[in-house]
Amino acid sequence: MDINKRSILWIVFAVSLVILWNNWMISTGKPSMFAPAPAKPAVVASASATAAGTPASAAAAAAVNGTAVAAPIKTEVVTITTDVMRVDIDTLGGTIKRLELLKHKGSADPGWLNGCFGLFEFCKPKGGNNTEVLFSENGKHIYLGETGLVNAPNLPNHQTPFVAQPGARVLNDANQVKLVLEAEQGGVKLVKTFTFKKGDYVVDVQHTVTNTGAAPVSPQLYLQLKHDGTPPEGSGFMNPSFIAPTMYTSESHYKKYEFKQIEKDAKSLAEDPKFKPGHVTEAKDGWVAIAQHFFVSAFVPQDKLERTIFTKKEGDNLYSIGVVQPLGTLAPGASVTNNARLYSGPQDTDTLKQVTEGLDLVKDYGWLAIVARPMWAAMAAIHSVVGNWGWTIIAFTVAIKLLFFPLSAASFRSMAKMKTVTPKMTAIRERYKGDPQKMNQAMMELYKTEKINPLGGCLPILVQMPVFIALYWVLNASVEMRGAPWALWITDLTQHDPWAILPILYAISMYITTRLNPQPADPVQAKMMMFMPIAFSVMFFFFPSGLVLYWVVNNLLSIAQQWVITKKLEVGVAK
Question: Once rounded to an integer, what is the mean pLDDT over residues 436-454?
Answer without folding.
Answer: 71
